[in-house]
Amino acid sequence: MAFDYDKYIRPGKLPHIWCPGCGHGIVMKGLIRAMDTLGLKKENTAIVSGIGCASRLPGYIDCCTLHTAHGRAAAFATGVKLAKPEMNVILCGGDGDGTAIGGNHFIHACRRNIDMTYIIMNNYIYGMTGGQFSPATPTGHKASTTPYGNPDPCFDIAKLAIGAGATFVARGTAFHANQIDKLIVEAIQHKGFSVVEILDDCPTTYGRRNKYKSVIEMMNRLKEVAVPVKAAEKMTAEQLQGKILTGVLYKEEKPEYTAEYAKVIERAQAK
Amino acid sequence: MSKKVAFLQGNEAAAHGALYAGCNFFGGYPITPSTEVAEVMSVELPKIGGKFVQMEDEIGAMAAILGASLAGSKVLTSTSGPGLSLKQELIGYGCIAEIPCVVYNVMRGGPSTGMPTGPSQSDVMAAKWGTHGDHPAICLVPASVQETYEEVIRAFNLSEKYRTPVMVMPDEIVAHMRERIVFPEQGEVEVVSRKSPSVSPEQYKPYDTSFGDVPPLASFGSGYKFHVTGLNKMQDGFPTTKAEIVQAEEERQVRKVEANADDIVTFEEYQLDDADVVVIAYGSTSRSARYAVNAAREQGLKAGMFRIKTFWPFPDKQIKALAGKVKGFIVPEMNLGMCANEVERCAQGKAPIHGIFRVDGEPINPDQILDKMKEVK
Amino acid sequence: MSRYELRFSGAGGQGLITAGIIMAKAASIYEGKQAVQSQSYGPEARGGASKSEVIISDGPIDYPKVTQCDALLAMTQEAANKYSHDLKEGGVLLIDSDLVVKIPEGNFKTVSFPIINTAKNDVGREIVANIVALGAMVALTGQVSRENAEKAVLSSVPEAFLELNKKAFSMGYEKALAASA
């Protein structure tokens, strides 16, 4: 039997704003399947986002949804989670929102290891504003504000998350749709701050400027560059040239923030 | 039983006022001269099971309290000028998404880093116009330690009642001076909580105006599912660009405060009955003014003071009425004429306005005001 | 009007703000008067200039700052130079005789004794010099009783240091009386 997405979609809120060929819808479906697998209660789940195409996702899902200001999802979400640790808190947004204007909140949410899951849809571009380069745009690539090629080096978002202290970091792609929900399930189950980076495509503002002839070509590229971490172990450095690792990249158990704060309360009340 | 008394700083009193009002979540970032509020909250909140978080920056602190408020907490942040500038982004979010919260801002010199330990009153316009767009503004300007305690309680009440951010803005002198404070008993001062929904989760809309200009607010995690956005929204909380809806919602958001000015605006009239020279003052400057009025009266001058306790909404009506009766207004303030401009607007040319403006980090002393009174005479 | 104005001035880290707070607390909590304490300070936690002002009155206090000082404590030469000029006629200036060597002139009474040295050698800890100074200011100003001031001291310091502070306070009180006699 086909999976019934409608039980999680808000009635009357579709069609979504995303362009044909955009991978955000694939990620949303992955999230919905993950929620279903875990049996998350909709009224006990908050989905928090910033600004941008990817940040419109919460509006379509029938939960407690908070579409905040540009870059601020992690900070708003920290308030929600700390106030009500019993809630499931999921964040989503794009690469520009999360790692440029929201970069500070992002790394500090990682550092606190607060039990939330952040799904970053990385399509290498600011799509909603018309295709300006983001901290994830590869060097040399074209955007509306890098007409001569991007001079900036780019972030490896997963490495950034690991370096900042996130205790679960995974990467998938919009092409590998069946893997997305599995990664999100594992991320949500992890006690601590988990980051799932999904390499995504923006045919409208990125593909067009960077000589991708079609969405299919963009999807094929995701298929070709992705190498599961397990497979990569058997590959040489030469073979890994230009490839991107996918799967669970990092996992460790560390004290979680709301649990630690509960201990602060205990200590304060014991005095 | 005699009441509990203490000898406290304005900032410490603010924290205790917040706790009395039921504050159970504080998000902050260290900044002089308001840090004592955060310090007291970090000690006291966990004792009552509340939450204290020091965020990575001022914006993050503002975001955290808004998130926590949506999850049902009564929330506070504290800051000072440079932090207020940063928080303005999300104060606007609180206004449009109609999220109760209290922003306690100690006024120090500016702009930018300015004079971090010097007193100032130059954030009063930022309280109204600091965040972009049309929005409601409530700003309270206490003049003593006791009043700081009481006004923080009132700020929580107003914020919960009108579902909007409320600012409390003592100047650095009030924030850091110490006075005796008498704590009210539990239940002695009214504590207001936001209106919660009376309809089922299926019927709930977060901006349902059939309940009036201030719709009930459900909490995340209480069985109600709803959407909150910083975009112009419809009654169900979802974004819209429909002209008539945006217009009506924007007007309602401002009206819910402006139309209730009589409920919100507070002031003190001191020696006004026969006064022909009236000082309009607020915060610590009003203490200099009171000293000057007393000294002037001893010298036979008919001086009085109109003390602003609520800066926004501005006491338009009261100052308009006074303007017809006096020879002149004196407006002393630690900025270059922010309140004086408002007084001028209200006076409509009926009374001259004499400003005493200081931005050198020193308080306005009573002699300066007394000298000006003689000029008006 | 019963308004009485005190200023505690010196360098950051000398504990003068604390001394001012305890004086004001003694007046407003224990003596039944009204009091306001305020301060100004630079960015330094140690060193730099520090000033704590206390207004004591029988009635409500409006202006919280010093207008004309009744009593001044100066714990550095710089503070003595800077603040002695607005001392009232007949006011009192207390200085540390080791630190303020150039004694300001004016129509006020100057009392001096080695405050920091008293703390270091007679009480045993330099850190309580501010309480020695406070004891002296209480004796010289007569705004609060010795008993009430002592209560305020004891309610403001850590329990482990009650005796030390009590001793410091008494030493200051006695030495000031002797020095001004």
TrEMBL record, chain A:
The keyword ATP-binding does not apply. Gene3D superfamilies: 3.40.50.970. Pfam families: TPP_enzyme_C. Residues 51-198 form the Thiamine pyrophosphate enzyme TPP-binding domain. This is 2-oxoacid:ferredoxin oxidoreductase subunit beta. Keywords: Oxidoreductase. InterPro entries: 2-oxoacid:Fd_oxidoreductase, THDP-binding, TPP_enzyme_TPP-bd.
Automatic annotation (TrEMBL), chain B:
InterPro entries: 2-oxoacid_oxidoreductase (IPR052368), PFOR_II (IPR033412), Pyrv_Fd/Flavodoxin_OxRdtase_N (IPR002880), THDP-binding (IPR029061), Transketo_C/PFOR_II (IPR009014). PANTHER family: SUBUNIT OF PYRUVATE:FLAVODOXIN OXIDOREDUCTASE (PTHR43088:SF1), SUBUNIT OF PYRUVATE:FLAVODOXIN OXIDOREDUCTASE-RELATED (PTHR43088). The keyword Oxidoreductase applies. Residues 275-369 form the Pyruvate:ferredoxin oxidoreductase core domain. The keyword Oxidoreductase applies. The lineage of its organism: Bacteria, Pseudomonadati, Thermodesulfobacteriota, Desulfuromonadia, Geobacterales. It comes from the Bacteria. SUPFAM superfamilies: Thiamin diphosphate-binding fold (THDP-binding), TK C-terminal domain-like. This is 2-oxoacid:acceptor oxidoreductase subunit alpha.
From TrEMBL, chain C:
Keywords: Oxidoreductase. Pfam families: POR. It comes from the Bacteria. Residues 12-174 form the Pyruvate/ketoisovalerate oxidoreductase catalytic domain. PANTHER family: 2-OXOGLUTARATE SYNTHASE SUBUNIT KORC. This is 2-oxoacid:acceptor oxidoreductase family protein. It comes from Pelotalea chapellei.
